[in-house]
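Protocol step 4 of 5: obtain the predicted structure for the target chain.
Materials: sequence only (see below). No template structures provided, no constraints applied. The aim of this step is simply to have a reference model before the mutagenesis design in step 5. Sequence pasted as it appears in the construct record:
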Amino acid sequence: MTTDPSLLVMVDVGGTLGTADGPGLTMRLTEASPLPAAQARAVMRASLHTQPEITDAVAAGVCEALGVPPESFPRDLPPAPFRLFPGTTEALRRISGVATVVTLSNVTCVDADTEGLRGLLSPWVSDYFPSCRIGHTKPDPRAFHTVIDQLGVVPDRVIHVGDDWACDIVGAVESGIRAVWISRRRQVPDEDLVVDHGVRVVADLTAAASHIEHLAAGSVT
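Step 4 output (structure tokens):
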């Protein structure tokens, strides 16, 4: 097969391609906050993950929203090393054979390590769109459409692959693009969404690659 430049596959990073070896800024703040973890992460998606740099004002605002003392905000954290799941590079190689592949991730500017990812994922991934770069986080449709608009692809030629149901799958569906959920054998949260919007549920990225190859062979009809 040959790459179809008009077919775009966006892939999530953490939990989809691999995992960080150690806690990053988001995890440290989640653990420090008295808020439930899901609520703390939602706060940070709105106030921290969209920031290209963390100023004193940003840190103070995030701490106030999380109920964390300002002096507890971690400073000068290096990005945690990223470890790919087994089979990731081979799956990306296959996907890149039929489509343009980019990443779309919710991540702080502290935890984002685009050059490190480039070293792991080149030449199969052609560009990287962390939320701290584009100013929007999934599931906001603006995150998906920022990438689509920048690359000049129409939504019906886009597939998003991710492991987070709310951010990746609901976000993709609400953005009008195809979604592939990496379930890792978890139960589907919303069967109606799967049926009504043709969400593909797969166990891992290898299975996602097979599905995308099949779609590409049929020209994503």
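Step 4 remarks: The first strand starts at residue 4 and ends at 11. The mean pLDDT is 94.
Proceed to step 5.
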